């Protein structure tokens, strides 16, 4: 007979670290699956298809080229449109990138995890998702985003 409390001793303890590992694994798998389904080349058209694919992006997302809601040097920011995520998001992209659709996937991919999972997502998951989706090393993806952000601050689109 199991005594009260004994069943907990065999159950693994969930830690914040284990949760982050599980989230990272899930984010990476989601990006990999999206790349298989919509790639291997993820261009602006493929990114539009990804945003419309509810197996990849949980909520509707529209893109608007407008720097108004962006902080200085920020390349993009997703704004929730209603009280609930299911109302969708507007992803504001810096207007200096509007004429450069080859760059859009870099900018958009970074924000998909935070649109899907909210505040639990860190820059680590965002970079992992973007790099995996685009078939890049995480460090290369990070450097590309830094260069794009620096170009905004310098007033010179890349």
Task: Set down the secondary structure blueprint.
Layout: H1 16-38, H2 44-52, E1 61-65, E2 76-80, E3 89-93, H3 104-117, H4 123-134, H5 138-154
Parallel strand pairs: 1-3
Antiparallel strand pairs: 2-3
Helix pairs in contact: 1-4, 2-3, 3-4, 4-5
Assembly form of the protein: single chain
Shape call: globular
Task: Supply the number of helical segments.
Answer: 5
SSE succession: HHEEEHHH
Largest sheet: 3 strands, mixed
Q: For the residues shown, what is the average pLDDT?
A: 91
**Helical/strand content category:** mainly alpha
Percentage of residues assigned to helices: 40-55%
Domain count = 1
Tell me the distance between the termini: 69 Å
How many E-type strands?
3
Low-confidence stretches: none
Question: Radius of gyration, Cα only, in angstroms?
Answer: 18 Å
Notable characteristics:
single chain; 158 residues; mainly alpha; 3-stranded mixed beta sheet; 5 helices; 47% helix; 9% strand
Protein described:
With 158 residues, this protein is mainly alpha-helical. It has one domain (26-152). It has five helices and three strands. The chain has a three-stranded mixed sheet with strand order 1-3-2, covered by helices on one side. Strand 2 (76-80) and strand 3 (89-93) form a beta hairpin. The protein is globular, with a radius of gyration of 18 Å. The N and C termini lie far apart (69 Å).
């Amino acid at each position: 007979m199991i005594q009260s409390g004994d069943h907990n001793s065999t159950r693994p303890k969930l830690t914040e670290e284990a949760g982050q590992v599980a989230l990272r694994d899930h984010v990476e798998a989601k990006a990999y699956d999206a790349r298989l389904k919509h790639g291997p080349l993820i261009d602006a058209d493929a990114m539009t298809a990804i945003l419309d694919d509810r197996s990849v992006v949980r909520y509707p997302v529209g893109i608007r080229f407008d720097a108004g809601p962006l902080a200085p040097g920020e390349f993009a920011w997703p704004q929730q449109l209603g009280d609930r995520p299911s109302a969708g998001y507007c992803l504001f992209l810096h207007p200096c990138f509007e004429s450069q659709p080859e760059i859009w996937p870099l900018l958009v991919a970074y924000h998909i995890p935070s649109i899907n999972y909210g505040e639990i997502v860190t820059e680590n998951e965002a970079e992992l998702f973007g790099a995996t989706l685009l078939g890049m090393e995480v460090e290369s993806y990070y450097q590309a985003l830094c260069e794009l952000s620096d170009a905004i601050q310098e007033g010179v689109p890349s």
